[in-house]
Amino acid sequence: MGRAIRAWHWLARTDVAAVLITTAILLLAVGSLFPQLPPPEVSQGERLARWEALAAERYGRLTEILSVVGAFRFFRSPPFLLMVALLALATLACTANRWPGIWREVFRRPAAETWLATAPFTATLAPPPPDTAASRTHADALQRVPGIASSPANAAAWASALASRSLRERGYRVRSETAEEMTHLRGERNRLSRLASLVAHLAVLLLLAGALVTALLGWREELTVTPGGTAAAGHGSDLLVRNEGFAIPRYADGTPANYEARVQVVAGGRAIRRTVAVNQPLAVRGVHLYLSGFQPTEAGYAVTFLAVHDPGYGIVIAAGLLLLLGMTIVFAFPHSAVHARIAADGTVHLAGWAGRWDFGFPRRFRELVAELERQIARGQDSPVEQPCSC
Amino acid sequence: MFVLSYILLWAALAAGISSQLRPGRWPGLLTRAATGAAWIAMTAGLIGRGLAAGHWPLTNRYEFALCFVWAILGLGLLLGPGEMERSQRARPGAASAPVGGAEHGAGTWVVAVALLVASYALTRPADERAIYPLLPALRSVWLQVHVLSAAVGYAAFGVAAGLGAMRLLGRATDEEDGVERATEQALAWGFPCFTLSILSGAVWAQEAWGRYWGWDPKETWALIVWLWYLLAFHLRGTRGWRGRHLAALVVAGFALVLFTFAGLPWLIRAVRLTSLHGF
Predict the structure, then answer these.
(1) ipTM greater than 0.90, yes or no?
(2) How much is the pTM?
(3) A88 phi-psi bin (left φ>0, alpha ψ -120 to 50, beta other)
């Protein structure tokens, strides 16, 4: 049990994921060098023999060896499937391990003092020293605030109001609390976006699950139907396809504009007539009919259709959309936070933190500091007490 | 219009190199102006070709190369120098800082990447450069979604590679941080776009061929490119692969992009593979 837990935590490591991704890249590159055996529905009988003859002509004596090691079924071979399984397990382990920590960070607030001490961006803004031109301007400014008379306590309230307004103007959601004569403001943007990377990871697992559903429960059948003839889709489906004609609309220069097959499909006791064209399959009772090919005959065109039942497709596409949504949120709506601690004398301690993909945060933090500096000190001769460590 | 755009790109490159050798206001501005003019000319050319053909100019390798160049220039103008300039302005004393430097050097490298792809486009044979009616297999709204998102994704990777090459081959400067941020910004654009390209390709494949993934060589190598950048994000986030390491990753990633775009047809011919993808 201990070994299993250690293996689980080992799989959750990002450097292990990096090794697995690198292995996947190498395997994919190798697999792409060999022609893959066509899918079962089109690799039977004469067509399979033709494919094998071509492979033998290409690879000579190596054909047998390559066939045995699975080069021609590379993406269905045990080594490849094992790599996919390991990647899936690593993704699951990583997501499961990271979820609790990220959930806590999103829904619980860190202690203010801890945060102020560890944030990568900090600045301290003090009101101007007494008996200076700037301090008199500062006092005048305090008096102009409705309902506030100039005093140290009001300096804190004023600084708090300024900081809160500046943060809100920058899109931060601000919460305030007062403790031991200190006012704490916490401004956050896109707090929930930290969950997006977990969503993206889960989407990868869902995508692989969808592919598994396709492999286990889906089926494909190639049907070649002569003019006026009928073919059954099979696989437990009662679908019958009748070829009622084939047309090739053309452009003015004679090149084909489209390929269209008129069909009558009987399923569930009902018959419907439709046109099946390239990129326009026909869907009937969970089976999709695709136009796959045509051959001229004496009586017209024999048309080849591909009947497909794929319950995994919807899962895969939903997972793909979820993956896209997750990564878009990660990159476009990164989380950032600014904490302001305002002392009784109006001194403002600022601390900022941003996600890796918030490229503009250092600049925004500097601009916030500069704006508050101007507003609090009200003059050129009011220095920032400590340099902005950003 | 494409030839005009190509000439303007060379002018932009020359101005950019000049601004590196003799930093100053005017060579840098000339670089951006020539790049902007090249983008406008390319835009006009693509619109004209689309109107003449009666369909979006996304149907073969030549048209894709043109869109690729268009997207590199557009993204480069939008992303490349932007954050670096804003970072510089926000620094104390920025008003007196000399104009030029990293942001215009970055533009030069992005123009170089665009020129590389544009030169490839010019080598395409006459039958690819001719305008044809839309093939039946390409009559789908997914043509626009899939191919455009691929072009923008590739272009963003190209912008990142230009910035990465600048980082690898240039001297260490105070603006390295801005260059790296711009690189990451380009990747943040490119990866979701390229993911959309793969996803929309899967939807289109299901609609056209009845299967969303078939290990076609083009599909496989698109997945390789996607995994490479996924690897870069994981390494960047954990082992702190910053600076030259990240630069090397993005340059290598773009080499994979170029192979997938232009080299794969050679591989398919050489190994006698089959592919359902025309380009």
Answers:
(1) yes
(2) 0.91
(3) alpha
